[in-house]
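In this section we walk through a basic example: taking a raw amino acid sequence and producing a predicted 3D structure, encoded as discrete structure tokens. The instruction is simple. Fold the sequence below.
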Amino acid sequence: MAVVTITESNFDQEVLDSKEPVLLDFWASWCGPCRMMSPVVDEIAETTPGIKVGKVNVDEEMDLATRYGINSIPALLVFKDGEVANQSVGVQPKEQVLELLGL
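The resulting token sequence is shown next.
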């Protein structure tokens, strides 16, 4: 499944109302560690069925970043049934991200 760009306008529909777990990557274009994390997130989106993967650009979606207390990036949040079920900050190997997802 392709990565979904998450904005304030589609957040409720794509994340809170999602039937499947959602992995959200909070990132910024100027962030070196975010660029390191991006291929891992993209690979999970392509190879992990039953998971929705979205990316939130914190420079463009400051309200979402603030709502979820994002102070450091990259930050990964896992949503299940509209609630944050797990989270991590910093670059993570694929195996650790899959653990966050409960896989």
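Looking at the output, two observations stand out. The chain has a mean pLDDT of 97. The domain at 4-100 is CATH 3.40.30.10 (Glutaredoxin). In the next section we compare this with other chains.
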